[in-house]
Each structure stands twice: as structure tokens, then as C-alpha cells.
Amino acid sequence: MDKGKDSVDRVSRPLVVDLDGTLTPVDTLHEAALRYFRAAPLAAPLHMLGWLRAGKPVLKRELAHATPLDPATLPYDDTVLAAIRAARADGRRVVLCTASDRASAEAIAAHLGLFDEVMASDGRVNLAGPDKASALVERFGTRGFDYIGNSSADLAVWAEAQRALVINAPEALAREAEDRAPEIERMAGRQAGLRDWLRAARLHQWVKNLLIFVPVLAAHRYDEPALLAQMLLAFLAFGLLSSATYFLNDLLDLEADRAHAAKRHRPFASGRIPAAQAALVTPLMFLGALALAALNGAGFVLTALIYLAVSTLYSVQLKQVPLLDCMLLAGLFTLRVIAGAVAMDQGLSYWLLLFSVFLFLSLAYLKRYVELAQSRPKGELKGRRYRSEDVPIVMGLGLGAGYAATVVLGLYIHSDAAIDLYGNRYFVSFSLPVLIYWVSWMWMQASRGEMHHDPLLHAVRSRHSQITGALFLAIFFAASHVPG
């Protein structure tokens, strides 16, 4: 074939680009359903079922109008964008052709400014598979276009295209596409791997579940191997449960995460893991966590269910309520301590409970303060209802809660409850300045803009905080072995 003629033919052919999984790694329908569920968790399932009964195009149209997407927050595939810009530089027409609803497709096309034409589902026709192929043949003729796609639904389209451009597709699909189109090009794409799933599970956050062992330390029962094995099962159950709640939280917080400088790289927000896959895995993780919890008895299962209910309410709705969101975060931390007491079948000390509530409330406010400080130039924290002018009050509340925890500790040290556990309860008093220093230091770090992680993770990773924590524990250990 004459190379010059082939080049002319290629330039005269429009480049047709798929949307979901191609131009953007996400599925706009699935994410619209998640947005609608977050906005109306009770009504959404019934409404969506009714729309689906009327046909998938109707479901797409209703969701697109009920929860309009923000195209500025979507992740886009750089390889596809480069191919589109190269085609435009050659003078080719570029067409966005998608099974997504027209309202969503046109919003994305207007935002990018790279398309000459938009073809999409319209509430009557679902422009996917054979229907998309027929529409393109009618518009451009057989072999009259090149097509970039990624899924098995695109095989019918590639069969009518001159050139099949395959991206983000498994090897088997790429080979099948070779049998359909006269020409094929495999474009460098990205596929989710085990590392992405482990990152989404946030295994590093499992360090928070070490709070389950706090009642063991407080009761001085850390020398019982059978009890420690039992507590390890409890730790694993809460680890899996917390990972499942992170999945749920991230699925319902996609837009806010994409507006965040660091969180936009998370596997769900970046589109590396499709929302539909995550939505299927999440309930399985919850069931697995409850199965592990059952090994520690009915009381522990009930505690896990309470944690699940509170964290779900937080993820779906209540994290958008200022101040209450921090109280719930503190409650979720405290529930880990309560779960530890339940797992070891020992009553939880009132002093430990009160101390935990105030300390974790301080950390919850600290977390929100860091997020507010980072978003301050924008005026509002995306996905929350805090404003930039709330920074001083959040800091005041957080510092107040932290110092309240030190007051509780001081009262405990000189209570009758401390007499039975510590041979020298006055020695424990040295822990007070250590705690006051640590609370003040954490808030100073945040105020200086030197805290870029979750506060508890920052504390675990910081050498300064590690030394302070070790000193705090050493004081209590020494006090229980030094005569009064």
C-alpha cells in the first residue's frame, strides 16, 4: 500500500473515542449511582430499580440529571489525551462516542474542549456495543473511522472500524480485537493489581487497631499468651472491618478526594480500581470481618456491628455535619478500646473510657484542622461543611479536648482506682507533663504545616513522638514495679 495514500486516508478518517474506561478510567454510570446513594441512601435503591425497569437508557438519563458530575474532578487517561491532541494536530475530526448519557458526555466534552462531535445515549437508545457500531457506520460508513476502546462491548465497534486502538484491556481482548479490525494498535494502559488493592485497604492504618490492646496493658495482663492470641484475632477482625469501611468511605467520597492534592492519587479516586469492583468486594470484606469477630463471642460481634453502623452512617451522611463528624471519629477510636475490653471479657475502666474520648476527640479535631489548613486558600473543605474561617475554632476545640485528657489522667492518678494497679502512683504523675508536651507538640506541628498525614499515623511515624510515647509507657511500667 502507498504510504502517502494511507496517511491521507487516515487523516480523512475521524478518531472516535470511548468514554468510560478509555478517556477516563472510571465508569460514569456507577459513580452517578454512588453519588445518588450518598445523597438519598434510603430512597436511592427504589428509585434506581424503577428507572432500570424502564430501561438502562432511562436509568442513565435520570442519574445524570439527578446527580450531575463535575468533569473538572474526573481523572483522564494521559495516553488517550495525547492521541486526541495528535489527531487534532493532523487536522482530523475527533468524536466522543459513549454509552454514557448525553448530559454527562457533553459536560466532559465542553470541559476538555477537544471534541468536534458528541454521540451518546439519550434516554431512549443505549449507545453501546452493536448499537454504537451501527450508529458509527451510519454516520461515517464501514471502515470510515478509527476507534479507541477498552472493553468487550467495543468488539462490535472495532469490527466496523478501520483501525482498532485498544487501551486498558486484557491480553485476550486485545487478541480478539486483532481478528475484527484490519489494523490494530495497542496503547499503553494501566490495570489494577494486588498492590492497588492493598493500598486501597490501607493496611498501614491497621496501626490504629492496636488500640484493641490498650485494655490489656491497662489491666497489666500482657504476660498471658492465650489472651494475647485471642486479642490478635480481635485485631485482625477489626483490621478487616476498618479496611472495608475505608473502601466504603472512599467510594462515597470520590469527588472530595479528587479535589485533594494527595487523596486524588488513591486507587478509587484515580480510577485504577473501578468503583463497581470495589462495591462488590466491600460487603465481602464486611462479612469476613464479622466471621472473624464471631471467634471472640457474641459480645465482640455486637461491638463490631456497632462500629460498622457508626462508620457507615459517618461515611454516608454524618461526615458532612461539622463538629459532629469529629465526635463520631473520636467515638470510632474509642470503640476500638471498648472492643478490646469486650474481647478480653473484662469491664472497661471509666477512667480509661473518659481519657480515650477526650484524647481521640483532640486527634479528630487535629485531623480536620490539617485538612482545613491545606484547603484554606480555596475557602471551603471539599465534601465537608467547614469553611476557612473555622480554623481557629477547630484548633481551640482540639487543644481543649487534648488538655481535658490530661486533666482526666491527673484525676485518675490520685483516685482509689490507681492504688490497686500501681505500687507508686505518685511516680505516675511524671506522665502528666509528658502528655501535655505531646499534645502541644502535635498541634504545633500542624500549625506549622509540618503534618501531612493522619495525626495518629504522623505520631507513629515521627521519631519525636515515638520517644515521647515510649517514655509515657515506661513511666507507667516503672510505677507498677517501684514500691510506694
Q: What can you see in these coordinates?
A:
By secondary structure, the chain is mainly alpha-helical. Helix content is 60%, strand content 6%. The chain is built from 22 helices and six strands. Helix 16 packs antiparallel against helix 17 (350-374). Residues 1-8 have low confidence and may be disordered.
Number of helices: 22
Q: Report how far the terminal alpha carbons are from each other.
A: 97 Å
Beta-strand level of the residues, as a percent range?
5-15%
Question: What structural category characterises the helix and strand content?
Answer: mainly alpha
Major sheet, described briefly? Answer: 6 strands, parallel
Q: What does the overall shape look like?
A: elongated
Brief digest:
By secondary structure, this protein is mainly alpha-helical. The protein has helices spanning 3-12, 28-39, 44-53, 56-66, 78-89, 102-112, 129-140, 155-158, 171-178, 194-201, 214-218, 225-251, 254-258, 275-293, 298-316, 324-343, 350-374, 391-413, 416-419, 431-447, 455-461, 463-481, and strands at 15-17, 94-101, 117-121, 146-149, 163-166, 183-186.
